[in-house]
Amino acid sequence: MSKEAYESAGLAVESSLNGPTHPLVLTGARLIDARGIREDGWILALEGRIEQVGQGRESLESALRAAGLPSLPPSFQPGSDNHDVSANGVEFIDATGFILTPGFIDIHSHGGWVHSFDDGDEAIRTARACHMVHGTTRQVLSLITNPVDTMCTNLRSVRRVMDSRPDVLGAHLEGPFIALSRKGAHDPKCLRDPEPAVLDRLLEAADGCIRQVTLAPERDHGYEAISRLAESGVVPAVGHCDADYDQTRRAFDAGARILTHVFNAMNGIHHRQPGPIPAAVEDRRVTAELINDGFHVQDPCVDLAFRLFPHRIALVTDAMEATGCEDGAYKLGSLDVTVKGGHARLTSNGAIAGSTLTLDVAVGRAVQSIGLPAPQAVEAATLTPARALGLDRPNPITGAPLGLLAPSYAADLLLLNPAEWSVKTVVCDGRRIQI
């Protein structure tokens, strides 16, 4: 696709999000969420929320009557050629043979379709569409390290976009408060300590849109910043750091609750120098991000991570602007990136520069390559990231809770092909997305 085609798709997704909601029925699916698997399942969604969930046609008919809605129309024959029908203001979707899960939630991603979340409102629209079509119905927009003035401008852009559409959860600052020794693909000229005055500027510019800040706690003012962020309703994350075990424990006690992309950009596990990973394993308050692309973390260590952090792994993409695109030359902030074989590296020194991963691929790999039970893999892309940000319960950001196929939860729904775990249908906030 051309850049213009990507932008056109972004407009189509945005139009779907801004359209009206209609009663929505999906029936005949294999329902999978963090609680398990249900066969021959159905979901009734009203006004952007899940109204009822059940199994079997008879119980669906009862639910429709109780909601004052018409029965299944005769023209709707699940499993036949008459797949989807709109009748009497109700949209019926035949999900026979498909997996139905909650929408995916990515709390760490930088862009896609040749657009970065750092580059303003229109770029956000296009990059969000890239991930929406791959099942990420809600997303935190990760902003790369830049001069503080630039980061303030980018935060104001995220705030504007949040006010206009439901799928953007807010911003994640990955820097500038990270360690030079673990900078990865961040611009070293822009790294700095989290002095109170700088933190004040960022929080003021964000106007409440910052969900998460990744920082190195060992930097000057690090623990003070963690406490301040936590008190402000932001989730501090330990990452891109040179912290040892004791420093990491102190960070968690100060309020940090996320370990940014476990195994990457941090000290590893050594029997005499435990590092941050054992500290996070011990603290059940902490969620561990994991990039499951087979490149950032090899499969045996992906399997190990799920064993070390049961129900606490949040699959993330760390995706950059080349996501969904061909190999070639791209940008990450101001730095040049070369993508070859789908792997992004800085052109200057070969350092890994984010990924080209999408969450449908990450979840599919967890099931098909790692061998995880499907509910556990789905949980890592739905309920766990929602819980990490306090969005698994009613909240002022999304209203309805996220992460489960249950009554009162947001109607964020995916139909997935069971053979490939690829996306067939996306519903966000009760609206079917045209993809």
TrEMBL record:
Q: Which CDD domains match?
A: NagA
EC assignment: 3.5.1.25
Lineage of the organism: Bacteria, Bacillati, Actinomycetota, Actinomycetes, Bifidobacteriales
Family, as annotated? Belongs to the metallo-dependent hydrolases superfamily. NagA family.
Q: What is this protein called?
A: N-acetylglucosamine-6-phosphate deacetylase
Write the record's keywords in alphabetical order, separated by commas: Carbohydrate metabolism, Hydrolase, Metal-binding
Question: What's a Gene Ontology MF term here?
Answer: N-acetylglucosamine-6-phosphate deacetylase activity
Family annotation (PANTHER family): N-ACETYLGLUCOSAMINE-6-PHOSPHATE DEACETYLASE (PTHR11113:SF14)
